[in-house]
Amino acid sequence: MAKAKTYYYCSECGYQSSSWLGKCPECGKWNTFTEEVVQAATSTKSKTHTLSEASKPKLIREVSTSETKRIPTLCGEFDRVLGGGIVPGSLLLLGGEPGIGKSTLLLQTALSIPGRKILYVSGEESEQQIKMRADRLNQEGGAECYVVSETVTQRIMEHVEAVKPDLLIVDSIQTICTEAIDSSAGSISQIRECTAEFQRYAKESGVPVLLVGHITKDGTLAGPKVMEHIVDCVLQFEGDRNYGYRLLRSLKNRFGSTAEIGIFEMHGDGLREVANPSEFLLSQRDENLSGCAIAATLEGARPMFIEVQSLVSSAVYGTPQRNANGFDFRRLSMLLAVLEKRCGFKLGAKDVFLNIAGGIRVSDPAIDLAVACSILSSNVDIPISPRYCFAAEMGLSGEVRSVSRVEQRIAEADRLGFEKIFVSKYNARSLNKKRFGIEIVEVSVIEDAFRALFA
Ligand code: TYD
Ligand code: MG
Q1: Are 194 and 99 in the same domain?
Q2: Which has fewest Cβ within 10 Å: 235, 272, 288, 355?
């Protein structure tokens, strides 16, 4: 018998090497190499090289696109992220931390697609457990949804032959293994090979395949990073488990934009779509409280109005405490330094706590001005009207900088019935202000905003 061939793989990026390395030359991480036994079966090799009838060069203008009719999923948010439905023959990957709701989302989607045959393969749950979940979702749609608990790709392909589904769902890729390779399920070589097998199936049959992939913090299971270039579409499901909101983002999409996000709320009976996130995320407060400011942010192409809350109090200990929830801590330190140094607000002896309502993480820099104003509001203990909102970035010298798509933000603020929106002077220049009913307040430095709000 031939000696088993082993390779070393970087568990971060999947880099392959024939010997062990301390540092990965690809991603630069240390101590990430693990040994895996690889025995490529001789039969799979020849299979990949057979030319199907379709592989004949065609002129691009003669390639017809009529057959790529997307499969709509009745779940508006899911379709929106995909760009209008599932493309036949595509391979999709849904990633997310364990317990965030990936299985729930896919089962719910599978049950709601009307008039299609769906095969839901689970390597994690038994058929009874899937059924219990389906009962909980309480969604007896018209879908013909078959479920099977299976972990070997060759068996899965036999089930696929028998059922002939219109959509195949595999939950999760880390639990699936192929007989062609000797290493254990969840190892990088297994994940790569299984993904390649599903891709081959999807491309040859035209049946879309949805794969679930776990992202783990400690990286004991191989992350879906190695699959990213194989699949057509990478979706990420994220959110704070303590809150009900879940965001579905597309990180890569060969058939649509990656700017769209889907927003869901987790309930006892499954996920519900949130059509109007801006109205949803604003906390209903009757009283005017200091330290609150509303930011007009954009997530991808979608406006989201988010409440920023700050608490500034005198530091009890020698070193002032700083804490930020849902906002980059270093950015908060930078904003505080700007407020302190350039604008003369004495925050050095104060504790500052910052919270973004709803457990949402915001990366849009347009939230800066709202953060700065909420800190100032708490510091002087004067409330900002809940009918004001902010959309601007802050620079290191206290200047208020312009942000992208400001018209869209203003239009949304107008629609939601805000009175004033604070934007950068440089943004306001090119605006047609008559278009909007809302008052647009132009600021060029942070003191302008301070005077307008608290003087
Ligand atoms: P799950 O889909 O199992 O997560 P994943 O597949 O990403 O690991 O969902 C996990 C959580 O969702 C679980 O903690 C319970 C919660 N949940 C609800 O709140 N409502 C529901 O209707 C369902 C099915 C799950
Ligand atoms: Mg699951």
Answers
A1: yes
A2: 288
